[in-house]
Each structure stands twice: as C-alpha cells, then as structure tokens.
C-alpha cells in the first residue's frame, strides 16, 4: 500500500508527533517512530524506487514498505521544536503519544534543559549533566547509558519514569536532523513557517518513507547493524566522496571481510541495561576484533546465547541464497540487521547443541535496510551490472563462517 500525497491532508490541526526511535543503532539519517509498529525516515528517491520494485524473494528480508508521508517542523505549546506527520487517511483518530513513552519522556526532558528554543542542544546538556563532552557521550565505544541517564528521564506528566535502556545514537541523529532543519531557515522565516503550520493552511514539509518497525515484537531488542560489501559509494558519488568511502573500506574490515560493524546494542541481564557500540568503534576493528565483537553481541553479560546461533545462521544462509539469485542488483552502502530478544524465554526444551528449540526461531531476525545507494542495471542505462552482488555475497559468506567458528568453539 503506497500512501500518495493526496492522502496526507488529514484533519486541520491533527498531526502525529514523531518520537526519536530509541533503538536506532547506526546510520546517519534520523529514524523516527510513527506508531508502535511503524518508523519513518527522510525519503531518498533511490531507496523508494527499491522498495516499490522489491523482488518477491527479498520481501521477508526487508522491512515492509508502507508508503510515504509528509513531515513538518513544528513548535509545541512548551516552545520545543519537533517533527509532526500528517496522519494517514485510514487513521480515524490522531495518534496519541502515551505519557509513559520512553522516547517522548527522554526527549522532552532533554529539551527542557536546552537554553535556546530555536537551537535545541539536548545531547550537549545531557553530556554536561554526566560531566562528559558530547563527543564522549556519542562517540565512545563502550557505554552503559541507561543507568547513568535514567535519573534525567521523566514521563510527559512530570512523574519519574522507571529505569530503562536507550541507545544514544538515535537521539544524536534526531538532534542533527533538527539542527539541519533550523539552519536551512533564518529565524524570521522559520517563525513564519511554524505559524503557517500551526494554522495547517499549507502542506510545507519533507517527505518521509514509512517502514515496518522490525523490533516492535521484542522486549529487549538486541541489534547488530552491519555495513555489507566491499564498496560503499554509490554510482552517483563525487570523486571526493568516492575516495573518502574507499579509504574507510580499506582501513576497516570492509575490505578484507566485506562486512563491518556500524552499530550495536546488546542487553546485559546482569546490569539491566544495553551495552552500546557505534560506527567509530566498528571502523577500528581488526578481523579478530570483529570476531570478538560478534561474540560480545551474543553474550548477555552472564553467558553466551548459544541457542541463537543456529537460527541466525539459517536466516543468513537463506538470505545468501536469495542474494545469489538477484542478478544486476548492487546493494552499495546497505546494512544488515541481526536482531534477537535480550530477554530469553523462561523455559524451553534443550537442543543437542545445548541451546533451546521450539519458538526460538521467532525470537531472531535478519533484515536488510538502507537502500539509498542500491542500484539495478535496468534503472540506469549508463551503469549496467551482470550477475549477483559479489561484494555482498563475500561479506555474507565471511559472516556465516565466523559465526560457524563461534558455534563450533563453544
């Protein structure tokens, strides 16, 4: 189902306040939560083209595409800048943000500490409260932020919320997106736009893609974001951008393995918080460091979740078979998510490998995301490719091999 522009009109004054998606572990574009089962991200035409022509065999390995929507910059009654989407036509009532929403509670509390309404800097304020620089908060490779930051988190009605984990990367991307929007308009022009939007007389705003929230079913989603392939620049990249991306690949495991870590969060049952790693950590890993990071992703702070290895490997093998069948596609700069629930089932039958069986396959997932630079030979007569994507296949084969080594070593 594709939502056309005409379906974005909605009722005057009605909008869906978009929450920062607190389980975004990588990427540079802001991913926002539209509702419990839907996220949205800034529209890139190449990515939209991919979703609208998605091969049937790939659909179980990508988020469900739900169309597009218009998103506006708006100031709320407290003076906080935020993003609001026109609701879909089939939504009979405006989406109500729960007062217990973790994302809204955190974001509003951080915005309350900002000194300027027109230039929100909540992450910098959070960093000061933690006696660290913003760079240290966002870029350090090993952070357990939920315990430190939870005293700052309040529900929308001002009540102190229960401690819970969040990944700082999504807030970083959301902050950067708001900053870019503010920089695009001088203060006087931004004031006129905001006033116009409050009257809802013009459909001013950005187009966003609506996608399935692939972690909505998980209580404590553990997520590994892997940048796949040996090449990360698109066909339309400038010489400067091409050189920059080639250097990143050469200096990371992308060149030798065809895969590198772009972000990770893994629930630590002993600390009741997420251990978070970012893309800067992933770029510095050696081959052995990459292997250790995969081991850490499957470790809950107490034990290695060996029961997850076989279902993850089955999904990766199935994806490999699908990619081998996709002639002329090149998935440049796309990512692969490996997901499982950090809160394991209480009881389950044991397998011969010492893990569990039953519904464990339902507790793991593998999804391809980020197709802004994906291309297919038939899309551009000037750039044609034959056969399946060799770089992506190289990365998948190495990833499967390393996970097999971890499985056999335990």
UniProtKB/TrEMBL annotation:
Its EC number is 2.7.-.-. Belongs to the inositol phosphokinase (IPK) family. It is an enzyme of class 2 (transferase). InterPro entries: IPK, IPK_sf. It holds the Pfam family IPK. Keywords: ATP-binding, Kinase, Nucleotide-binding, Transferase. Gene3D superfamilies: Inositol polyphosphate kinase (3.30.470.160). The keyword S-adenosyl-L-methionine does not apply. This is Kinase. It comes from Apodemus speciosus (Large Japanese field mouse). It comes from the Eukaryota. One of its GO terms (molecular function) is kinase activity. The keyword Flavoprotein does not apply.
């Amino acid at each position: 189902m594709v939502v056309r522009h005409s379906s974005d009109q909605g009722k005057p004054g009605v909008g869906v306040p978009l929450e920062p998606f607190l389980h975004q572990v990588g990427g540079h574009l802001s991913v926002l939560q539209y509702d419990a089962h839907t996220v949205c991200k800034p529209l890139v035409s190449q990515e939209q083209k991919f979703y609208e022509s998605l091969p049937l065999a790939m659909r179980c390995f990508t988020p469900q595409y739900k169309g597009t929507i218009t998103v506006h910059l708006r100031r709320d009654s407290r003076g906080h800048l935020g993003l609001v989407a026109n609701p879909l036509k089939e939504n009979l009532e405006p989406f109500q943000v729960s007062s217990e929403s973790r994302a809204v509670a955190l974001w509003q509390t951080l915005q309350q500490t900002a000194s300027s309404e027109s230039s929100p800097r909540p992450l910098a304020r959070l960093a000061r409260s933690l006696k660290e620089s913003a760079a240290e908060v966002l870029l350090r490779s090993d952070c357990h932020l939920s315990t430190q930051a939870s005293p700052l988190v309040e529900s929308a009605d001002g009540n102190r919320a229960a401690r819970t984990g969040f990944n700082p990367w999504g807030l970083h991307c959301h902050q950067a997106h708001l900053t870019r929007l503010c920089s695009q308009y001088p203060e006087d022009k931004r004031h006129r736009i905001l006033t116009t939007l409050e009257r809802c007389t013009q459909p001013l705003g950005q187009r966003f893609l609506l996608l399935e929230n692939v972690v909505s079913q998980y209580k404590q989603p553990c997520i590994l974001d892997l940048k796949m392939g040996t090449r990360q620049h698109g066909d339309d990249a400038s010489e400067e951008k091409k050189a920059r991306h080639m250097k990143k690949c050469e200096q990371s495991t992308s060149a030798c393995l065809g895969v590198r870590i772009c972000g990770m969060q893994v629930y630590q049952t002993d600390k009741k918080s997420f251990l978070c790693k970012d893309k800067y950590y992933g770029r510095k890993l050696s081959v052995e460091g990459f292997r250790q990071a995969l081991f850490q992703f499957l470790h809950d702070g107490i034990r290695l979740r060996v029961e997850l290895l076989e279902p993850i490997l089955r999904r990766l093998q199935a994806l490999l078979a699908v990619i081998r069948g996709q002639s002329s596609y090149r998935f440049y700069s796309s990512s692969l998510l490996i997901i499982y629930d950090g809160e394991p089932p209480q009881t389950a039958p044991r397998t011969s490998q010492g893990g569990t069986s039953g519904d464990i396959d339902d507790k793991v997932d593998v999804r391809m995301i980020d197709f802004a630079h994906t291309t297919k030979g038939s899309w551009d007569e000037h750039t044609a490719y034959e056969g399946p994507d060799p770089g992506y296949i190289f990365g998948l084969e190495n990833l499967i091999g390393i996970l097999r080594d971890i499985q056999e070593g335990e």
